[in-house]
Specification:
With 306 residues, the protein is an alpha/beta fold. It has helices spanning 16-32, 45-49, 61-70, 83-86, 90-101, 123-133, 152-160, 164-171, 187-191, 276-305, and strands at 4-8, 35-42, 75-80, 104-110, 136-140, 144-145, 148-149, 175-182, 196-199, 209-217, 223-231, 242-247, 258-268. The longest helix is centred in the C-terminal third of the chain and has 30 residues, at 276-305.
């Protein structure tokens, strides 16, 4: 098997720090004529060794692999994380997986990397095993944004607090939710404005409120500027959480069946209005703010191209 450059991790969310690791892997692979490999795990190891502490995930495995490929990595190895893998000592993991299965010549990880049974291996352990087993170890420093270390847990906190702009800085892209368009209760079409109702299996959702968004049809290339409410529709005494998106441009053709909603900026909290007319008037004001946002974004993009 051709020798490889390997990085190892869960890579949930595929944020800025992960992408920096991938760039280091690609650069090392190009310079040395090696394969660029990302090794990840399914399920998340915490779901096996400490399920009560397992984090809510930002991305599904399919989404994660798509984002990793978009970053330029063509070879992704997904290791089923089962009891047998969880019990491997750091040495056994290095021998069986890194040198045995992946033919690692260079291993690149972050400075907080831990591995092996009960996470007893760290970067020092990896360096020592590399010298014995014949691979080079490279440690990459933490990536920071606005003075804060980028991590999956920090991205989760931002999203759940509604701070989607900060989350986007850490992700290097807007946070998004994907899923099916499902029938609503018909209230919007009759009393306020028609919306697309998203049903998603995402584990991490933005805080209740109204957001400026962009919506993409996952079945074709259609894309719309939009505004999205995440909440319980208190004006209509709603009890189930809903994610309702109003498109700022007319919908031509058939209604999309599967969409992705990207969260660009938070507009306001969700609140109860005295009537449907008051809510509709507020929605139209929210639409005006969204249109201003997209006009400014278009001007900035045009200016940057010059």
């Amino acid at each position: 098997m051709q020798k490889s450059v390997v990085t190892i991790g869960n890579f949930d969310g595929v944020h800025a720090a992960h992408r920096h690791l991938f760039r280091c892997v690609l650069e090392a692979a190009s310079e040395n004529g090696l394969r660029a490999v990302v090794l990840t795990f399914d399920p998340h190891p915490a779901h096996v060794v400490a399920p009560e502490k397992a984090p809510r995930l930002l991305t599904t495995m399919e989404e994660r692999c798509g984002l990793i490929r978009a970053a330029g990595i063509e070879e992704i190895v997904v290791l089923p994380f089962e009891a047998e893998i969880a019990c491997l000592s750091p040495r056994e993991f290095a021998e069986r997986v890194l040198t045995g299965r992946l033919a690692a010549a260079i291993v690149i990880v972050g400075e907080n990397f831990r591995f092996g049974h009960r996470q007893t291996g760290d970067t020092t352990t990896l360096h020592e095993l590399g010298r014995e087993l014949g691979f080079e170890t490279r440690i990459i420093s933490s990536v920071k944004r606005r003075g804060q270390v980028v991590s999956s847990s920090s991205v989760r906190r931002f999203i759940e607090a509604g701070k989607v702009t900060m989350a986007a800085r850490f992700l290097e892209r807007p946070h998004s939710l994907s899923g099916d368009v499902v029938p609503g209760e018909g209230i919007g079409a009759k009393q306020t404005v028609p919306t697309l109702n998203l049903e998603t299996r995402a584990q991490v959702l933005p805080a209740r409120g109204v957001y400026i968004t962009q919506t993409r049809d996952l079945d074709d290339s259609r894309r719309w500027n939009s505004i999205t409410n995440v909440g319980y529709r208190p004006t209509f005494n709603g009890h189930a959480l809903s994610i309702e998106t109003f498109l700022l441009e007319p919908l031509t053709g058939s209604s999309p069946r599967h969409i992705q909603v990207e969260f660009c900026r938070r507009v306001r909290d969700e609140r109860k209005f005295d009537s449907a007319d008051e809510l509709k008037a507020q929605i139209l004001r929210d639409v005006g703010r969204a249109q201003t946002f997209f006009h400014r974004m278009a001007r900035a993009t045009k200016s940057n191209r010059k």
